[in-house]
Design brief:
The chain is mainly beta. The protein is built from one helix and 37 strands. The chain is about 5% helix and about 45% strand. It has a 25-stranded parallel β-sheet that branches. Strands 1-3-8-5-6 form a five-stranded antiparallel β-sheet, with no helix packed on it. The longest helix is centred in the first third of the chain and has 22 residues.
């Protein structure tokens, strides 16, 4: 009897092993399939990390697989893994069900290097399936930078102290993190051609009362202001950083050949705390050959200020492109192209002009001149210019030889037209003119602007806007 029982138990064990063997994981024959063979991260600033990328690992077999997943570079790797929701750079026995898949998430953080140029880091995600080893290659371009980290308590890092003149060079990028890079009262910040300034979320550049900024870009080497996420999907993303904010009292602030993009507000110029007998005399801001684009709010907000702008493009802004409230303004050959397509839909016009402000409430004598400008967009109301006047203060404004999307008809609009500007590609911020553009050869001559934003010579009868049409 005991011998029969022993044979019976032994038979059950053999049968169990046979049954289990039919379903046990296979380690040495199945090739995994991947949604991609490699992942490349665009330029990543040292210590800040990157966005997360993901790929899919598929088990094509009829049986569950048990796989080891790890980084080829081990503990020295700049990359980090999360496998199906479990963080860890070395994971053993990861189950991939039959005919199913798992997700692998990858991030990269690059340690500072000793070079001013972008440098390459690489690794691989290795999958060990029995005797079979497969991998997905990882590549990232890293870059060292000048890091400007704001004080956690104040949210400010002073970059030019009172009475100090500081120059930012173009040797490597500047990354502003944790708040505001600030120019103090009577301080001056000069920015060299080709300098790149990148801002982390919520950060910005503040020029305090009676401070100064000089942005000295060139056509070949513009100065770049944008968010610090350089992956392609962020190129048109709004609200990555806060704004450039210039307060009253500054004299001769200059911005030449700059590209300001992806902010909440592009450029804001105003007194700190209200009107309080502020005068625009001496508070002169000269903006030339500059592009301000892809902002969640307005492109330029100016209150009780003085701006002279020439050969500029203000485009694709979630609120107004130009929000001008009290002050002195002179715009020549400026293209306002507001074709913002974000959510919610834009409700404010491309240009809002007033001799007062709802924020402070006090009217101010105001003058605004627009010559050879284009003010156009896709607002549903069809009205890209809104002008409000407070009769308590003088208000002088004039539009001459401008192409406007507006139904306003009065003596302040001289030789203005409403035809289609036919931009090359407004959705991609390309505001050059096509051959059918109504802006061609309709500008006013002899206004002292001889080249366009690209450096092309303007004709005797110039085109409206920032760009001269070139066949």
């Amino acid at each position: 009897m005991m011998k029969k029982i022993a044979y019976y138990i032994f038979g059950l064990i053999i049968l169990g092993e046979m049954l289990w063997g039919c379903n046990k994981p296979v380690f040495d024959k199945v090739q995994l399939q991947f949604s991609t063979s490699s992942i490349t991260f665009d330029t990543v600033f040292t210590t800040l990390g990157s966005t997360t990328r993901q790929f899919t690992v598929y088990n094509p077999s009829e049986q569950d697989l048990k796989v080891d997943v790890f980084l080829g570079g081990g503990s020295r790797s700049s990359f980090s893994l999360n496998v199906n929701g479990v963080a860890g750079n070395q994971q053993q026995g990861v189950i991939i069900p039959a005919k199913d898949s798992i997700f692998v998430f990858v991030k990269v953080t690059i340690n500072p290097g000793n070079t001013n140029q972008p440098f390459l880091v690489s690794d691989s995600v290795v999958f060990q399936n029995g005797q079979i080893q497969q991998q997905v290659n990882l590549t990232a371009y890293g870059q060292d930078a000048h890091f400007i980290v704001a004080d956690p308590a104040s949210g400010i890092k002073v970059v030019a102290a009172e009475g100090e003149t500081v120059t930012w060079h173009n040797d490597k990028p500047y990354v502003v993190f944790g708040g505001w890079a600030a120019v103090d009262s009577l301080g001056t910040l000069n920015i060299e051609p080709g300098t790149r300034i990148y801002f982390h979320k919520g950060s910005g550049l503040l020029v305090w009362r009676y401070g100064n900024i000089h942005v000295n870009g060139t056509k070949e080497q513009p100065v770049i202001f944008r968010g610090d996420r350089l992956e392609a999907q962020y190129d048109a993303d709004c609200n990555q950083w806060d704004r450039i904010w210039i307060l009253e009292g500054s004299e001769e602030n200059t911005i030449n050949y700059a590209i300001i993009s992806n902010a909440f507000v592009g450029l804001q110029i105003e007194p700190w705390g209200g009107y309080d007998e502020i005068t625009v005399t001496g508070n002169r801001n000269v903006i030339t050959n500059t592009i301000i684009k892809s902002t969640l709010n307005s492109g330029i907000v100016a209150r009780y200020s003085k701006i002279e702008a020439t050969n500029c493009v203000i485009a694709n802004n979630g609120s107004c492109s130009l929000q001008l409230e009290g002050g002195e303004y002179d715009f020549k050959h400026v293209t306002v192209g507001n074709y913002y397509s974000g959510t919610p839909a834009r409700k404010n016009p491309g240009l809002y002009l007033s001799n007062t402000t709802q924020l402070y409430g006090a009217p101010m004598e105001t003058s605004a001149n627009f010559t050879n400008c284009i003010i156009y967009g896709n607002i549903s109301s069809g009205e890209e210019i809104v002008i409000t006047e407070n009769e308590a203060a003088p208000f002088h404004y004039n539009f001459e030889h401008c192409l406007v999307k507006s139904s306003i008809v009065n003596d302040h609009f001289v030789n203005c037209h409403t035809g289609d500007p036919y931009f090359v590609n407004s959705g991609h911020n390309d505001y050059h003119l096509r051959a059918l553009s109504y802006a061609i050869n309709r500008g006013k001559s002899n206004i002292g602007v001889y080249d366009d934003l690209d450096g092309n010579l303007r004709s005797n009868i110039p085109d409206m806007g920032a760009y001269e049409y070139v066949p």
